[in-house]
Amino acid sequence: MFGLGWPEVVIIGLVAVLVFGPKKIPEIGSSLGKTLRGFKEEMENPQIEESEEEES
Predict the structure, then answer these.
(1) 16 CB neighbour count, 10 Å cutoff
(2) What pLDDT score was predicted for residue 3?
(3) pLDDT per position as a tens digit, 24-33
(4) Rounded (5°) CA angle 35-38-45
(5) Dihedrals φ, ψ of 54, to 5°?
């Protein structure tokens, strides 16, 4: 995963828990998941905005 070994991933996880706290981590994961899901949907089905259509 991104050239990181398991020890590095564990250290990053521990630092995240120390910085954000154990109650905030699920909220951050949820919002990140929603953001990535929206990005993926937009990449699969791009929509041209109305302002771009008028310029063409």
Answers:
(1) 14
(2) 84
(3) 988 988 998 9
(4) 155
(5) -70, -35
- Which is nearest to 25 in space by CA: 14, 16, 15? 16
Cβ atoms 25, 16 nearer than 8 A = yes
Q: Among positive and negative, which fits the CA dihedral 3, 8, 13, 18? A: negative
Tell me the pLDDT of the chain (56 aa) as tens digits: 578 898 998 899 899 889 989 889 889 889 989 999 999 988 888 776 665 555 65
**CA pseudo-torsion sign 42, 44, 50, 54:** positive
Q: What is the DSSP letter of 45?
A: S
CA–CA dist 10, 15 (Å, integer): 9
Say which amino acid occupies 34.
Answer: K
